[in-house]
Amino acid sequence: MWRYLAGGAAVIALIVAGFMLFSGNARPRPLLPAQPISQAGGAAVPTDPLPDAAPEATAKTREQKRFDRYDKDRDATITREEYLVQRRKAYARLDVDGDGKLSFDEWAVKATTKFADADRDKSGTMTAPEFATTAVKRKGPARVNCPPVQAVAEES
Fold first, then answer.
1. Is 100 found in the same domain as 73?
2. Does residue 106 contact residue 90 with C-beta atoms inside 8 Å?
3. Which ranges constitute the DSSP H helices of the chain?
4. Hey, CA dihedral for 6, 8, 11, 13, is it positive or negative?
5. Quick check: pTM over 0.70?
6. Cβ count near 85 (within 10 Å)
7. In which domain, by residue range, is 102 found?
8. What percent of the chain shows pLDDT beyond 70?
9. What residues does the EF-hand domain cover (predicted)?
């Protein structure tokens, strides 16, 4: 019988202690005092909610990147020499004999090589799958390794 009385007293003591703990000044206090805006760098905390989607790059941004690739000396202007550097490199790759003149055969060597590489069965014609290998490979946007949509949905 004493066990029941001791257990009941312990339960009542725990309830009173919990009530005192949660109804008192148990709120967390800031570790540092609040600083005025002038000391915090002058920036106010934005009250607007975050946008739903990230902004996309505009065409102007892409065009600026393209401009910067040509503007080697970074003076915000592209000279004729800066513009023609890429063209001269491409021309030099095609001018196999180095005579400064581009013959039709030299010019066509890239196309004929591309055709020969794509024609896997050496039939002299390209099938649709062979032709698909001749498409220009463009650099896509950098991708983050995200799990597939179905895998995320299955875990939830």
1. no
2. no
3. 2-23, 59-70, 80-94, 104-118, 128-132, 149-155
4. negative
5. no
6. 13
7. 95-133
8. 72
9. 82-117
